[in-house]
Amino acid sequence: MSIQANLKEVLADLPSGVRLVAVSKFHPNEAIEEAYAAGQRIFGESKVQEMTQKYETLPKDIEWHFIGHLQTNKIKYMAPYVAMIHGVDSYKLLAEINKQALKAGRTIPCLLQIHIAQEETKFGFSFDECREMLAAGEWKELKNIHISGVMGMATNTDNTEQIKKEFCSLNIFFNEMKLAYFTDAAYFKEVSMGMSHDYHMAIEEGSTMVRVGSKIFGERNY
Q1: What 3 state SS string does the chain have?
Q2: Contact yes or no for 87/65 (Cβ under 8 A)
Q3: pLDDT tens digit sequence for 90-132
Q4: Is 133 exposed, middle or buried (0-12, 13-18, 19+ CB in 10 A)?
Q5: What is the pTM of this model?
Q6: Phi/psi class of residue 211: alpha, beta or left (left: φ > 0; alpha: ψ in -120 to 50)?
Q7: Which residues does 107 contact at the CB level (< 8 Å), separation at least 6?
Q8: Which of 95, 17, 34, 40 is nearest to 218 (CA)?
């Protein structure tokens, strides 16, 4: 199967209103160009340096989504071009993204990463930490970011009931936050959840954005 055939197969699965982030991290420009030729425009990367090299050498209408764990000192390199940052897990990060976005003369859409899995290795706010951060209200002063929704990763398990429950909890939380803080914010609309192995379940539970890599590009070379 070619990348283009894989891509078409994944896209055929997505209901309207669900967007695909093609996870291209560790894959070469040629692979991205193949997906681009088939019409894909949103790509996800997890290393700032790699993403910046790709941004500089690939077509400028690509939307680059940063989906990795973010360090504050790297934000300045992608602030001029990144289309969305998926993994914001602290107020400190939001404030730094805002600072660098201001310097770049941009407003950067960000997703709050929520820890929904039963695994310690995953990053993110707990539901309560996120509630506290939003209740404190300091984020309202940050004019160069948009909190555009939430992101989460389910536990890596064969227990489909557990995965569904975790995705469902994220969607419920999204709706709670929408009502509490973002009723008038049209941009607060994304529930980014679901990867190659579980995106069908994520869509059933309300995902608006799935992050699919290996199913499109094949297994990656580290």
Answers
A1: CCHHHHHHHHHHHCCCCCEEEEECCCCCHHHHHHHHHCCCCEEEECCHHHHHHHHHHCCCCCEEEECCCCCHHHHHHHCCCCCEEEEECCHHHHHHHHHHHHHHCCCEEEEEEECCCCCCCCCCECHHHHHHHHHHCHHHHCCCEEEEEEEECCCCCCCHHHHHHHHHHHHHHHHHHHHHHCCCCCCCCEEEEEECCCHHHHHHCCCCEEEECHHHHCCCCC
A2: no
A3: 999 999 999 999 999 999 999 999 999 988 776 899 999 999 9
A4: middle
A5: 0.96
A6: beta
A7: 101, 143, 144, 145, 146
A8: 34
> CA 151 to CA 174: how far, in whole Å?
9
C-beta of residue 46 within 8 angstroms of C-beta of residue 65 = no
Residue of 45, 36, 25 whose CA lies nearest to 221: 25
pLDDT for the residue 221? 59
- What span, in angstroms and rounded, lies between the C-alpha atoms of 189 and 208? 8
Reading the block at residue 148, the tokens are: 């555009």
